[in-house]
Amino acid sequence: MCHRVAVSRTTILLWILALMALEIQHLKWIWWEYWDCRGCSAKHKDCACGATRTWLMFL
Ligand SMILES: [Zn+2]
C-alpha cells in the first residue's frame, strides 16, 4: 500500500517535470517566433546582429 502510493507520487512528479519541460520549450518557441531582438528590432528568428546568438547560450 505504502509502496504503491510512493510510486504514484513519483509518477505524478515525473509528469509535472515533463509538463514543465514542455512549457519551457513552448515559451522558448514563442520567444523565438514573436519577440523582437533588442539589437536589430527584427524577430529573434530573423535576427542577424548576433544578440540572439548570445541569448541562445543561456537557453
Ligand atoms: Zn538582432
Can you give keywords for this protein?
59 residues; 2 helices; binds zinc ion
Protein architecture, described:
By secondary structure, this protein is mainly α. The chain is built from two helices and no strands. The termini are far apart. The mean pLDDT is 89. Residues 37, 39-40, 42, 47, 49, 51-52 line the site of zinc ion (ZN).
Please write out the topology.
Elements: H1 2-34, H2 51-56
The protein binds zinc ion.
Zinc ion is lined by residues 37, 39-40, 42, 47, 49, 51-52.
Strand content: under 5%
DSSP helical segment count: 2
Principal-axis shape = rod-shaped
Hetero groups in this structure are: zinc ion
Q: Give the topology string: H per helix, E per strand.
A: HH
Mean pLDDT: 89
Q: Tell me the major beta sheet.
A: none
Structural class: mainly alpha
**What is Rg?**
18 Å
Instruction: State the low-pLDDT regions, or none.
Output: none
* Total beta strands: 0
Distance between the termini: 41 Å
Fraction of residues in helix: 55-70%
